[in-house]
Design goal:
single chain; 3 helices; 122 residues; 31% helix; globular
Length: 122
């Protein structure tokens, strides 16, 4: 954008496959009112080769995971795992590098929550 703002998001293979959140996310830019223009400012950091391969079919600004090897391991991190805080700091280092290059960042986070039905009669 003219003010050097980019939209960043991160996906792994679970979010980047046919019928996934990535498709819904991209479609929201295409179908929203005056939002399609933001697609050119969206950069998708892929966390694994499978995500990169699929992302590249859908969007021109996907970053290969090898770009960020110093920051991320290939092991998936659960939000409840002891390594999650290390993952968060490494992710923050990516953001700091982008900011140091003179860009402003809008970062999106996708969280899927599953709810279990509770039977209050038992």
């Amino acid at each position: 954008m003219s003010d050097r703002t980019i939209i960043l998001t991160m996906v792994d293979e679970s979010y980047a496959r046919p019928g996934s959140m990535l498709e819904i996310f991209l479609q929201s830019f295409k179908s929203g009112k005056d939002t399609q223009r933001f697609l050119n400012h969206l950069v998708i950091i892929t966390m694994d080769p499978q995500a990169f391969e699929y992302c590249s079919l859908l969007h021109p600004h996907c970053i290969h995971p090898s770009t960020f090897e110093p920051y991320f391991s290939t092991k998936r991190q659960s939000i409840t795992s002891p390594d999650h805080s290390v993952f968060s700091w490494r992710r923050n280092n990516v953001f700091l590098d982008v900011i140091e290059l003179g860009y402003n960042i809008i970062f999106t986070v996708w969280i899927l929550i599953s709810f279990n039905r509770i039977d209050i009669n038992n």
